[in-house]
Amino acid sequence: MRRSHARPTDRGSPIRTQNYEEADVPILSEVLFAAELVLLHAAPVYYGVGTPHGDGSAVVLIPGFLCPDFYLTPLRKWLERIGYKSFSSGIGFNAECPNLLIRYQLNETIDKALAKSGRRVHLIGHSLGGIIARAIAAQRPADIASVITLGAPFRGTVAHSSILRAAKMVRHRILAKHGTGVLPDCYTGHCTCDFLDSLRCTMPASVMETAVYTEDDGVVDWRYCRTDRPEANFAVTGTHIGLAFNPSVYAIIANRLAQARSERNKRRVRGGCIFDGAPVQPPETQQLMFKKWAASSIAWLTTARVSRACARACVASARSIPALRSVFSKK
To answer: pLDDT value at position 319?
Structure first.
């Protein structure tokens, strides 16, 4: 299996600061991610309603700082439902030197995804996982089709003080575990490893980049989570943790993956409808899917004893999907 590690020319580093800096963010608000998880299970997009269908491409998901692969299970299963081959990163908990994670685990996962799909791979990374995803894309542009980051401060680690303290503890653990196997500045913005060298380079032109962020972020400074390309930046309402469960984020992911495919293929879609340049189910199929979604959502909402306000928010999210407006307008 091919593996290209050509490094792109550095046309101006996107990193704003190499130091770990403290951000004044409302970390206690992050407990609201639970509400986003509830809304996700009642949102039409979670059941594939109104979303572009995938083409069987592989998508590798990379978890955030101190997080396991497991919490991205809803996102992984959703990607499978809408037609992609999804893969967990295989790194377990994200509490290791990113350079070693890429070299010994993530490269293996990407090679597996390439072999099973037969085409370039998409990467989706949450928080630190998004930073790692961008580094991989810079190292392997021939193998990566697109990178989607969710609340990833790839322009500099500016985060809540508790996150910085945790990062310092992880750094001490890495140095104690690997000794001379890692560089002295490992897990800092001043390290000279391949991981950080890749981040200092602009994204290869062949890789579509997407940066999703929330201005309500309670973990990192959202201003360090955006690219220099306005068309690649997408702001949503919600928490940092909840970006992995936010229905609005799922809609953005579906459309950006479809856009990456349409730009790559440049071919006419046969049959079906066109949604942002990608095929989706015909109206009659979407109406059937909506009925199934409505029945399952009502049952789920009743079981979970979600408030009426929450239920109304779910219906409002369905009405916001252009492909479903005709469904609601029918008597």
So the answer is: 52
Distance from C-alpha of 134 to C-alpha of 131, rounded to nearest angstrom: 5
Of 96, 76, 127, 133, nearest in space to 250 by CA: 76
Q: Is 279 inside any structural domain? A: no
Tell me which residue range forms the domain holding 165.
21-269
Ordered DSSP codes for 267-301: -PPPSSEEETTEEE--HHHHHHHHHHHHHHHHHHH
Looking up residue 258, the CATH number of its domain turns out to be: 3.40.50.1820
Domain assignment present for 51: yes
Does the global pTM surpass 0.85? no
Q: Is the pLDDT of residue 195 over 90?
A: yes
Contact 214, 236 (CB under 8 A): yes
Rounded to whole angstroms, the Cα distance separating 54 from 1 reads 23
Cβ atoms of residues 133 and 62 within 8 Å: yes
**Residues 6+ away with beta carbon under 8 Å from 70:** none
| Structural domains in the chain (count) | 1
Tokens of 98: 């990113």
Domain annotation covers residue 306: no
